[in-house]
Amino acid sequence: MRLSGKVALVTGSARGIGKTIVERFAAEGAVVALSDVANEAGAAETLAGIVGRGGKGMVAMFDVGDAGQVDAAVQRIVAEQGRIDILVNNAGITRDSLLMRLSEDDFDAVVRTNLKGTFLLTKFVSRTMIKQRSGRIINMSSVVGQMGNAGQSNYSAAKAGIIGFTKSMARELASRGVTVNAIAPGFIMTAMTEALPENVRKAFLEQIPMARFGSPEDVADLAVYLASEGASYVTGQVIGINGGLYM
Ligand SMILES: NC(=O)c1ccc[n+]([C@@H]2O[C@H](COP(=O)([O-])OP(=O)(O)OC[C@H]3O[C@@H](n4cnc5c(N)ncnc54)[C@H](O)[C@@H]3O)[C@@H](O)[C@H]2O)c1
Question: Which of 23, 92, 167, 229 is least surrounded by Cβ atoms within 10 Å, i.e. has the fewest?
């Protein structure tokens, strides 16, 4: 097992990619802190499945965009588990619209959850990692943060912001034994992408050299690698997992 004894906090893990990541981390021996702003029942069910397979963990419900809630939740996780070794900033939302119809609220909401949430979690969790002199931070960006996408200016700006934030944090935290990397998934089959209209999905598929969408398992495998000992010399990187959509 590649993550034995490690404590991992994964935001937005009640469903989708985050849920698959906590399941994979637990299967690799990590103690997992599942967290989300909604769907506590889903998180509890996922945890029950992990415990049923001999794993360990806890649920911490909080909004990644609220500094007070993030601070309290991180303190609780450290108090209960003793440490945090791995942080995956996975919580994210979309509010798609072409610029002319994009409201200020929809711009702010997307930046708040995706980018500010990543900043807040990194700020509060890195304190613990710096004291430990070790840690792994994995930020969920997106292929659209690298190549842009019509109708997603708010989301692609937030995801591109995560790339800049990741590189700056990698520089700040390298001497403290903490690595910081970003994963940039392409089109992954989850509830977030199932909500897209059929014609948009078809247009994406035509641009993907591998001619298929990815799965949450594909992304979780990469997260396990970045969290593992094998990736100890990897920091400040943006790793695409997109079937060749963007190279
Ligand atoms: N699915 C894809 O194709 C794809 C592609 C590129 C990047 N991503 C990114 O991967 C991550 C996971 O995506 P997914 O497809 O699993 O999405 P999802 O919508 O299935 O899951 C996201 C989770 O984040 C939670 N969340 C939303 N706002 C939150 C907040 N303020 N605080 C805490 N939790 C919050 C949601 O409740 C949800 O459980 C996101 O950051 C997304 O932007 C997804």
Answer: 229
**Any idea which residues carry the catalytic annotation?**
155
Q: What's the CA-to-centroid distance between 91 and ligand 1, angstroms? A: 5
Q: Provide the edge-to-edge strand list for the sheet that holds 86-89.
A: 56-61, 31-36, 7-10, 86-89, 135-140, 178-185, 238-241
CA–CA dist 68, 120 (Å, integer) = 10
What SS3 class is residue 65? coil
Rounded Cα–Cα distance for residues 178 and 230 (Å): 14
3-state helix, strand, coil in the chain (%, to 5): 55, 15, 30
pLDDT given for residue 201 in this prediction: 86
The fourth-level CATH superfamily of domain 7-237 is: NAD(P)-binding Rossmann-like Domain (3.40.50.720)
The C-alpha R_g of the chain, in whole angstroms, comes to 17
**19 Cβ closer than 6 Å to some ligand 1 atom:** no
How many whole angstroms from 224 Cα to the centroid of ligand 1?
18
Beta carbon of 60 within 6 Å of any ligand 1 atom: no
Q: Where are the domains positioned within the chain?
A: 7-237
**Alpha-carbon span 238 to 245, nearest angstrom:** 15
Distance of CA 96 to the CA centre of its chain: 20
For residue 25, the model assigns a pLDDT of 98
CB 223 within 8 A of CB 21: yes
